[in-house]
Amino acid sequence: MTPESVRNVILLIFAFIVAVLFISPFLEPSGAFRMLDGSTGVMDHSDIWGSINPLSGSVYALGDVLCHQMESRSIMLNGSQMAFCVRDTCTLIGMTVGLIATFFILKDLVRKNVTWLMIAILAIPTFIDWGVQHIFEMNVMITTAVTGLMLGFAIAMTLWKLLLKMFDEILLKKPESV
């Protein structure tokens, strides 16, 4: 097993999740998913998810638990809001794109400490955007989308850096063969 093979599995999982996020609103009639506003960490609409097709039900149930699902902060497709808000959706897209980018980024560059600075530069704007929008009770979807993409890319770089570090440590501890 190599860090590349683990990365590839993670990439496939996130690519599948992103694809299913965009497909799910089209698997039910137009406008089937509206006004799903709720609380993060709580399943607010469990009565709905069991009565629809299992794929959409699973995706929307996951969004119900992990996201606030505010309609005003969601992308609308087929007259329905997506299972996750725009920030969460774009973070997942950013993670997928970031993992794809690791195919082209030299491992030696990722192993250097400067990578943490790059990760911070990518992630911090998301928290600033969240804070500003929360304090001033505003909703600027474009900044939310852009900073979500940046955060996702930062998460992907962090995963890749940690994978490389983990495999480097395993190789250093591996007994030499005779």
Could you please describe the fold and organization of this structure?
With 178 residues, the chain is mainly alpha-helical. It has one domain. Helix content is 64%, strand content 2%. It has helices spanning 3-23, 46-49, 54-66, 86-101, 107-111, 114-135, 141-173, and strands at residues 76-77, 80-81. It has a two-stranded antiparallel ribbon. The model has no long low-confidence stretch (mean pLDDT 90).
List its traits.
single chain, 178 residues, mainly alpha
Outline of the structure:
With 178 residues, the protein is mainly α. The chain has 7 helices and 2 strands.
Topology of helices and strands:
Blueprint: H1 3-23, H2 46-49, H3 54-66, E1 76-77, E2 80-81, H4 86-101, H5 107-111, H6 114-135, H7 141-173
Antiparallel strand pairs: 1-2
Helix pairs in contact: 1-4, 4-7, 6-7
Strand order, largest beta sheet: 1-2
Estimate percent helicity: 55-70%
Tell me the number of structural domains.
Answer: 1
For the termini, the CA-CA separation is: 21 Å
| General shape | globular
The value of Rg in angstroms is 19 Å
